[in-house]
Amino acid sequence: MSGTTSIEIYDTTLRDGTQAEDIHLSVEDKVRIALKLDELGIDFIEGGWPGSNPKDVQFFSEIQSYALRHSRIAAFGSTHSAKTAADDDPNLQALVNAKAPVVTIFGKTWDVHVRDALRVSLEKNLAMIEDSLAWLRPRVETLFYDAEHFFDGFKANPDYALETLRRAAAGGAERLVLCDTNGGTLPHEVTEIVERVRDALGPEASLGIHAHNDADVAVANTLAAVRAGAVHVQGTMNGFGERCGNANLCSIIPALVLKMGLGCTAGERLERLTATSRFISEIANLPHNKYQPYVGASAFAHKGGIHVSAVQRNPETYEHVPPERVGNVQRILISELAGRSNVLAKARQFGLDIDSQDPAVLEIVAQLKELEARGFQFEGAEASFELLMRQAMGTRRKYFDLMGFRVIDHKVREDEAPQAEATVMVRVGGQVEHTAAVGDGPVNALDNAIRKALDTFYPQLREVSLLDYKVRVLPGRPGTGAKVRVLIESTDGRDKWGTVGVSHDILEASWQALVDGIRYKLLKSEHKDG
């Protein structure tokens, strides 16, 4: 295959993806995702199974109100029931009533399923496949067939598996999609089987691939199938799906375009891939997988000093594709593995003017290693690290001095949740503020108290709110004497930043992270005004 070959991309996130644990999409969520996939240039978007639940019926109705620029919506269903004829089957009727331009139905390929699940004869199953497709053919614009459990079926009984495809083609299917439904087939098996199918059916057969990830090779299996002649690829964004997930389109699309030199419309818009991937995670209310290839936050993140030094000279040394091609960015991480190159790279990112020979660079590296040995971690707390750098360079303002704090828990009645009260004392210039505030828990009370004390001097702190608060008990000393690390994420409605604190006392660690967050906001405001 060459770049002149165009591969169809068929997304099943709105059906397969919703079968994953912890994913629940409303009709509105599904519409928003469909519109985002259309922007990316996905060829086909499978909206769901209209014969299975009211939500999917509503989606197909709602999506007709939108003019998609590229994508075509597909409705999914099964062959007709063994107890009914195609003319009387409610599932097939529901597919037509969905008014989707594309219909995809699946049928049984594996003789074990035909006998044990459907409990019909092998010939009856073949008739159900052909009759269902023949009934749909004049009633829909585009018709695809998913051969469920094809690879297991082919290994068990290749003649019968091939006959199911022939009957599907006779019924009018435009694509014959080979499904690794159990996800246990390996890439070399996929290559061999797809080639044998092509030889048996001839060049007129248009093949597709639908792989699950139970053996952790769904992406590899998909690429192997394409290399063997498949021109239609099914998968989900971020690999969402039942059990271990489906083939991940966020890895497949750039691999097809950047590695195999093949064409697809989504490949022409690769710079939107990372944003689309993260948008869908957000709508699904799941944290985005930072370790995901191509689109993950760590996909182009460099931590080791030798690696950082190399990518600063030539990114190709440790980056297999330019991150901007897929809409991602290179990141330089700060940790105990960091060297001079890491610090200089972060300085450039922060807009700090520091020379490689400046003694402050070695001081920063030494402080970093010492702090991380004590339990600090700056990969999720870059605001704290910028403050540390500015302090070493002598460019960090104090803004205020901390004179002390105290927290008391109050519990009036047994059936009431305790309410915390925090008292703080700060000095701004020559003026001392001694303030108390209450909150839902000691950290919230501390946050309220420190901002109340500083409100008169720095009203911009009213914009700040806490997005996330994480506590981790650090290894070492057992029990309640262990150290804890607190990571806090803050926002002012425009930007987000992370800060860190470490102590044997959880309140002290929280205080450190809270104060760093406030100081960073003041630093941001100062530079914006300047």
TrEMBL record:
Pathway where this protein functions: Amino-acid biosynthesis; L-isoleucine biosynthesis; 2-oxobutanoate from pyruvate: step 1/3
Keywords linked to the UniProt accession: Amino-acid biosynthesis, Branched-chain amino acid biosynthesis, Isoleucine biosynthesis, Transferase
Domain spans labelled Pyruvate carboxyltransferase: 7-274
InterPro entries, per database record: 2-isopropylmalate_synth_dimer, AIPM/Hcit_synth_CS, Aldolase_TIM, Citramal_synthase, LeuA/HCS_post-cat, LeuA_allosteric_dom_sf, PYR_CT
Organism of derivation: Dissulfurirhabdus thermomarina
UniProt cross-references to CDD domains, sorted A to Z: DRE_TIM_LeuA3
Enzyme class: transferase
Keyword Transferase: yes
GO BP term, example: L-leucine biosynthetic process
Similarity-based family: Belongs to the alpha-IPM synthase/homocitrate synthase family.
Pfam families: HCS_D2, HMGL-like, LeuA_dimer
Protein name stated in the entry: Citramalate synthase
EC code: 2.3.3.21
Xref: PROSITE patterns: AIPM_HOMOCIT_SYNTH_1, PYR_CT
GO MF terms, alphabetically ordered: (R)-citramalate synthase activity; 2-isopropylmalate synthase activity
SMART domains hit by this protein: LeuA_dimer
Reactions catalysed, as given in the entry: pyruvate + acetyl-CoA + H2O = (3R)-citramalate + CoA + H(+)
